Amino acid sequence: MEMRIALVTGGLKGIGQAICEKLAQDGFITYATSRTPNKNFKHENIIPIRMDITSEMDYKSVINQISKEQGRLDLLINNAGIGLFGPFEDLDKNKWEEVIKTNIIGTMGITQEVFPMLQVRGGRIIQISSIATKRALPYNSIYASSKMAMKGFGEVLAEEWSKYSIGVTNIHLGATYTDIWKELEGFSKEDMLRVEDVARVVSFIAETPLHVRIDELTLTPPKGIL
Q1: Catalytic pick among 139, 143, 164, 177
Q2: In DSSP terms, which residues pair with 125 in a beta bridge?
Q3: For residue 11, is pLDDT > 60?
Q4: DSSP classification of residue 135
Q5: Which residues, in sequence order, are bridge partners of residue 168?
Q6: Would you place residue 43 in the very low, low, confident or very high pLDDT band (cuts 50, 70, 90)?
Q7: Residue 139 a catalytic site member
Q8: Which of 172, 134, 155, 133 is nearest to 213 (CA)?
Q9: Cβ neighbours of residue 184 under 8 Å, at least 6 residues apart?
């Protein structure tokens, strides 16, 4: 059976790591990018690789490596992202510009770069977005803006690239437990989604035949939006 090839940005911790592990178990050769890759990652189907999503030189180098080593790409997971929260009037402009560069400009750049490989035989792009695109949440102005831009980007690509059999899916996540929640009071791990839940859904989309469009999914924990 021919191995499929996946690229996961921000793939070596939290949600991204869980996605990489699930895809590798499902038979994908999975390139997992991170600004500080873990060289000791043990799954034989996972290839850790250093990449800063805000660096055009970095993501072009990664795509070139995949092209040389595999000759194709079947799946791109746009997962890399950072957050910035608080009253808008208090937020440092340099920090919110970094959020935009990471969450949307970098995402758009790498997506354009993989297009020639996906175009050959079709494939899927899955974007890890946020419930903040569905409801206005206080102190989320910059993060929500970046994810709303990602949402619009994905929706347009789903229409533009359908003729190439390239499916684009936005997954809007409710509260999902990762290390960033450990420092916050008033939130319980039991009330949140688990990273494995997200990975399972990503795997389902990745395994779905390309003639089926899945433009959008929203995942929330049992209590809804926390």
Answers
A1: 143
A2: 76, 168
A3: yes
A4: S
A5: 125
A6: confident
A7: no
A8: 155
A9: none
Q: Are 10 and 81 in contact (CB under 8 A)?
A: yes
Q: Which helix (H) or strand (E) holds 52?
A: none
Task: Determine what percent of the chain is predicted with pLDDT higher than 90.
Answer: 67
Spatial contact of 49 and 31, defined as CB atoms under 8 Å apart? yes
Per the CB < 8 A criterion, the answer to whether 118 and 76 are in contact is yes
At position 152, the amino acid (one-letter code) is G
Least confidently predicted of 23-32, 49-58, 108-117, 185-194: 185-194
pLDDT of 184: 54
* CA separation for the pair 56, 81 (Å, rounded): 16
The CA distance from 79 to 167, in Å, is: 16
pTM of the predicted structure, to 2 decimals: 0.93
pLDDT band at 132 (very low <50, low <70, confident <90, very high): confident
Amino acid letter, residue 205: I
Tokens of 166: 């390239």
As a residue count, the chain comes to 226
What would the two tokens of residue 216 be? 């959008």
How does DSSP classify residue 31?
E
- Tell me which residue has tokens 């949402």: 151
Domains and CATH numbers, the chain: 4-219 (3.40.50.720)
